[in-house]
Amino acid sequence: MPDSHRRLPYRADVDGLRAIAVIAVVVYHAFPGALRAGFTGVDVFFVISGYLISSLIWRGLADGKFSLLTFYGRRVLRLFPALLVVLAACLVAGWWLLAPGGYERLGRDTAAAAVYLSNFVFWRESGYFAPAASARPLTHLWSLAVEEQFYVLYPWLLIATFRRRRATVVLLLSLLAGSFAVSVVILRIDPAQAFYLLPSRFWELLAGGLLAYAQINVWKQPSRRVANVVSLCGLALLPLAFLRPHSSDFPGWWALAPVAAAVLLVGGGPEAMLNRLVLARRPLVFVGRISYPLYLWHFPMLSFARARYGTLSTGAALVVVALSFVLAYLTFQFIEVPLRSHVRRVSWKPVPVLIVLMLALGGGGLVVDESGGAPSRLPLLMRKLTGFTYDYKPVYREGTCFLRNDQDATAFTSSCVEPGTKPLLFLWGDSHAADLYPGLKALETSRRFRIAEFTASSCPPFVHYSPPNRPFCEALNQAVIQKLRALHPREVLLSAAWERYNDKTPLIHTVELLRRLHVPSIVLVGPGPDWPQGLPQVLYNTYQERNALPTRIRRGLSDRPPKIDVKMHALARRLRIPYVAPLAVLCNADGCLARTGAGGNEITVWDTAHFTRAGSVLLARSAERALLSGIGG
After folding, report:
1. Residue range of the domain that includes 495
2. What angle is formed at CA 88 by the lines to CA 84 and CA 91, rounded to 5 degrees?
3. What is the pLDDT averaged over residues 70-93?
4. Separation between Cα atoms, residue 289 and residue 331, nearest integer Å
């Protein structure tokens, strides 16, 4: 089939900008903290994609030769081959490197990536207890899904309005303004939706599209001086784009920085001094040309390495990044380059083959997902310990006494306070208080007390605390205080993920308030063991290496909880309140208890740091006297 599109003039400076964007993303993922907002390199990619795709479509429409079939055929030939290789490699690697839970998620993520719906999966599974993004090798493919969804809708808009320039401009500007408004508003309501879904990202791609429209129809050839100024302004915005925002504040207003920087740098044109002398330099152009496979490879490589070895040293991370560059180059040279001829002349022969292969690979991912991560590859005990999806919701009483981020205090029900006249233990805090509930409940069979549970995710027991991602937290805690006034508990148990809350002054205020309310006993619970890889994955790795499963494990433990424990213990002494140290109960020189129950067939922590029912009961029974120090016999 002959090519029905006029080829765009090649711009080396755009490849150079691609290089800067992908390097920022790689540094952000490989060296956390080194480039605080390197993830905004994705936003730069969005602008470039919108610019190039719009230029291609408008030139085709102007020539009267634009074809939707040819357009989508090009997308398949350009994007599918490298993605197929990476997805297949990840499924094979996951069989060996991931515990069943992680492999199950990888199968689901592969299926979603094969049909470009990854962003919806990560949005739906982005709750408080969702695995860390770094633990899911295909998390980064959300951005490809956004682009492909844009490609599905966008050409139709341009075709519909092409012959009416004013209508085109009005439509695109309206969509850009509307999408940006959605981004700002949704960010405060559902940050994950704002981050992952197309409506709040559409404007970023449209910014590139409007630049292409301006260059073709309005601002065709700026003067050298104007081009230099425009390009330098774009450069000046890059530090703000890559260093300032945090992911919880994004996209929203802060996305203007990377988007504006990309628009100005591309808009400066190939003759701008910065673009000619810096962006068009060979090293940057080379990285830009392999940027797509590099983006595909680097994140799975880092994720698998961390799953296997835990936190990576700087040297180890550099080795993984170097290997990613090698794989990216090989993919480019031996897969992408040979297919370029097909892209140029739009030979249809590979297209149906690529589509069938992609769908087959997605089907393979679904099989892995439905199997639960292929637990049959493991012995029976390992399946029980690592091949499960823990349903914490009924155990923690989610939705009624342990509230989600989208619930306010009215969601607490009467069941949160056990009836009767026995002494009342009041449990207050975030999810690390909720996971104590099943253990405390088990103690009721031998001790005379009853429980009130008022807990909420990401909401510590602070009198005044209102983070952007937890809008109801302050009002929720005020409602809890009213419950305290009415219930007159014998003991209040305070627990939270203390490492997440740097300022402990609100906790001091909480203790002071409880004293003014004449609460007889206030008990502070410190941090428990934390396995950043997830305890099931650590057990899997340990079994693979030793062919044995010790009861206590030192491998993969975070060094943060012991440091926090020292500070919290000191704070408890300062406040003159009892302190419970789960680390002292569960850990010793040989490591922390990873499994319990008859034959050690129950895992103690189901993710990185939250107790299972068995783990909670183990802690409660081991620290019964300290936990119930204010209850009495």
Report:
1. 390-528+559-587+618-627
2. 145
3. 93
4. 11
